[in-house]
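Subject: two folds for Thursday's group meeting

Dear M.,

Sorry for the delay on this. The cluster queue was jammed most of the week, so I only got both jobs back this morning. I'm pasting them in the order they finished. Each block is the input sequence followed by the predicted structure tokens. Could you check whether the formatting survives your parser before we put anything on slides? The first protein is the one we discussed after the seminar.
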Amino acid sequence: MSSALENLETQLDLFIENVRQISIIVGDFQPQGQQVLNQKIQSMVHGLQELDKLKSQVQDVHVPYEVFDYIDQGKNPQIYTKDCIEKALTKNEQVKGKIDSYRKFKSHLLAELSSSFPNEIAKYRAVRGDDRPLT
């Protein structure tokens, strides 16, 4: 699979370079450059044919739609993974904070309930098998 991806990357690089050269030729078109332009267009068609041949080798590769959004926004798609990790870390911190808050709330709630309803909390703790002292 790695070889197929490398071949695809090479073909895409060649295709992009060819399109860049065509844009330069067309942007500053001179009639004597028609032959060169025709050759570049033929080269572009050949590049598309080569890319079409490679599609069967990489059809099992799945790219998240968000990567295409990055490309459409002019961002480097290689930073997609970095951004995903940063978002996951941020979400992890938020969830950890919520868990800590719920633990503190449970502890305070049990402390208050045990002072108001000691018998019921003792039964509750016996059913739960919780022998730890309330803090």
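Second protein, same layout:
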Amino acid sequence: MPAILMVGLLLIISLDSTVGEVGVCNGRLGKKLPPPSKVISLYKQNNIKRMRLYDPHPPTLDALCGSGIELMLGVPDADLPILADCLDNARSWVQGNITSYPDVSFRHIAVGNEIEADSEFAPFVLPAMQNLYDAVCEAGHGNRIRVSTSVKTDLIENSYPPKNGEFKCDAVPYIKPILEFLKETRSPLLVSVYPYFAYIGDRVNINLSYALLEPNSGVNADGVYYDNLFYAIYDAMDAAVEKLVGPSEGEVERLGDESSGMGRMVASETGWSSKNRSENGSRPLSAGDESPAATVENAKKYNNNLMRIVKKGTPRRPGRPIETYIFAMFDENEKPGNEEERHFGIFDADGKPKYPLCFT
């Protein structure tokens, strides 16, 4: 075997235990959630090695010190204008939320969360990313912390077959400069990948077992076999990204930065709702809320299957594990939106798992 292929193979094998690990999003929009110290203990007890935190919450950052848990730290949307305004503001943010916590293992900074192309915050995303990137590099963290932003997959159209995925015309002016920046800085795009919502939106054409990533369910998508909907959504976004910023060039770029195992995209949110009624059952379901797919058993199936498939790579990117974050650690009873949005947690507030889920 040629030496360069051997190196590539060894790199793929080594990445399997790093990129393919599944982290958990630590949403905090709920009452009676455990304090940060107990949350971190729960992560460690269950061998969860990565966390996504949606804002720089000092008690959680303090609790993370020395834990070894790798962190994706979010920048709230409302903070983007001031960070986009000037580099000094970004320097202050990095000093206060990164440098001040030398014992926290920062992995990503997520600048804004699922901001739409027509949002009032959209013009501030890229300049905020650029300023934070410069500030991170100045602080000496450029080789270990990646600066990115998270997006929803509804920015794309023509998602089936996945190879035809492309961004909506009105989204291109927004997303293309961001993708060019990410390519230049060798940072991954953060993508929310939700087969649950795809299934809820099209039950006629999507089989439930396919959405639940169950074995032996699949479709032939224009000559390419997909055995689960997560792969199909991920690959459609991957195809859309490639259409805007070009194909990967060479083995090293395909795999990402050798020192960090970064790929082109991170599944920064995914999960399955386990319930869609209010806790006391007093609130009747409306037609828009009715969702018999939202059960504990289905959430168990989805998340356990997810742990398996993200280690293997998709049909477009075979052999390349996908860095993935399950949403969420706990149910969030103050989260806005439909009732099902409040029941994505994998643990109850008392620390008991809703269902068996093995992080390895």
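Two things I noticed about the second structure. Confidence is low (pLDDT under 50) at residues 1-17, 249-262, 278-289. The longest strand covers residues 105-113.

Cheers,
T.
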